[in-house]
Amino acid sequence: MIDIRSWTKVILFIVATACLTRFIPFSSFFRNVDTLIHELSHALMTLVLSGKVMYIHLFSNQSGVTYSAYTSTWKAIPISLAGYIGASLFAVLLFYLHARKQEAAGLIAIASLALISLILFVRNGYGMMWCAGFVILTGLIWKFAPPWLRSGYYLLIAFICLVESVISSAYLVYLSMKMPNGAGDAANLSHVTYIPSIVWALLFTAVSLWCARISMGILFHGPRRGNR
After folding, report:
1. Are strands 64-69 and 52-58 parallel, antiparallel or unpaired?
2. Whose CB among 8, 53, 177, 212 lies 3.0–4.6 Å from 43's, allowing a Cys bridge?
3. Are 101 and 155 in contact (CB under 8 A)?
4. Which among 95, 81, 105 is positioned nearest to 169, based on CA atoms?
5. Residue 81: which residues within 8 A CB-CB, separation 6 or more?
6. Could you tell me the pLDDT band of residue 228, with boundaries at 50, 70 and 90?
7. Are 70 and 51 in contact (CB under 8 A)?
8. What does the pLDDT look like over 28-83, one tens digit per residue?
9. pTM above threshold 0.70
10. Where in the sequence is the domain holding 9, given as residue range(s)?
């Protein structure tokens, strides 16, 4: 049975967080973290399936694209699924690390992913400058910032990744209704499976909301521990 009250809290939390993060200076800069993780998830799945990642482009409007080559048509399914689902799961990981007081490890991990992406995949001008700037800023925060600033910086990234994972998948639902063939990953999946893009967009949204609920639970109650 669906707990309407619990899901209402999740949605209200996301809306409130989205509004608050928009008032933070340079928040658009940090929203590209979610874009990077989304595109990097596509790239990693491509490599897992023995494909070849041609390049990743990141843009100033928080959009991105991954160009890859693979031999079998069916591989487009897991590769297309990886983006939104990977970004949603990454938000959960960030809150888990926060609950375990591992913000420093989280910052190192995020900066490392950006650095690896810069070296191996990102090839457009803005994307390369963003990755380099983010790596430098995060490295300075990790190394020199006082604990309160480091924690605040980490939580800013975590909350933005959480919110953007939900907003981007919800926007995909809108695109699937207005322009089914222009709905990004949902359109790619539709072309391969013949399942309407709106179905895939709704799936991505459901996963993002579920991950948001898990993240909220970790944030307010801490990670669950099994019984010994």
Report:
1. antiparallel
2. 53
3. no
4. 81
5. 45, 185, 189
6. very low
7. yes
8. 899 999 999 999 999 999 999 999 999 999 999 999 999 999 989 999 999 999 99
9. yes
10. 4-220
